């Protein structure tokens, strides 16, 4: 009844030609879905906003497939018509890293070769290698993955070059991208470790410097190893399991421990994308503003986007990101924490949101009232 009344109340305000001065950004896992299962209220919440022409985007640390594929899947699962211009996932910004497109890069994580195809077919990287390709070509690079031989050989692709440490023409990796949650932590860690300890990213070699703490500068020489990029920092995420599951941040923490053990504490440079970081929210706001313009045609100066409501389940990514985000366009971001994902009802969130609400439906109701 409350929902209906606010819907009626709301319609009076948007039936005029006023362009709403607020919008939403929704996290996916733990807010709209638990794995593939829609969370109750998610369909109605998004449908209500579409019916009332309130712009929203989906902003997820998830990934592993192309934006097109994931949007099609989400539209089907949530029974809501979505399109890629209202969608930002963890590795979307990798598509803008043009400096590596003509180089050879390692892409880690995700199912089968899906992330490799995202990088080559959607982001125009010309030479992409996965740990699966490497272990299929050189099983002894990580002998313990022999149990997964059938899996890897079902999709592995030929390497652009052979591993031949004695040859200057040996396979060289120029950058490492962790696109999505690694499936085979042993293989993936080993390949990343080999590269970070190598001479100039040439597999099968060892730099005299990297990791050798007996050398000056703690043995760490940034220019002699490929840069390492993670697509998100999430230690936990909300799957269909009752308890939160380790995410890409869990893999990174495990790798950091390995690196410390192997190098005696050499510095490890890496860059982490995704929520809660400022560039991700800047990217999201650009996409939200472009989507709003598409909805209403030209949005003039007198139609500013004053407020964005970020609805999330993870205090460390969704809430911290929205709270810390400094918009260059003057929009204020509010953070709404739901109880249907990582955050556990009754506990003190590690980052204080604007408000804690039961679920995405209550988040929309709260925001519609707040925006009046
Ligand atoms: O891999 C998915 C996980 O990191 C969290 O995704 O949608 O809750 O940002 P999301
Ligand atoms: Mg989430």
Task: Explain what this protein looks like in three dimensions.
- By secondary structure, the protein is of the alpha/beta class.
- It is 34% helix and 14% strand.
- It contains eleven helices and 15 strands.
- It has helices at 2-14, 42-51, 67-78, 114-122, 131-137, 149-153, 185-196, 248-263, 278-296, 315-324, 360-371; strands at 22-26, 33-34, 37-38, 56-59, 87-88, 104-108, 127-129, 175-178, 228-230, 236-237, 245-246, 271-272, 307-312, 332-338, 355-357.
- Strands 5-4-1-13-14-15 form a six-stranded parallel sheet, with helices on both faces. Strands 7-6-8-9-12 form a five-stranded parallel sheet.
- Strand 8 (175-178), helix 7 and strand 9 (228-230) form a beta-alpha-beta unit.
- The longest helix has 19 residues, at 278-296.
- It is elongated and about 70 Å long.
- The protein binds SN-glycerol-3-phosphate (G3P) and magnesium ion.
- Residues 27, 29-31, 238, 312-314, 341 line the site of magnesium ion.
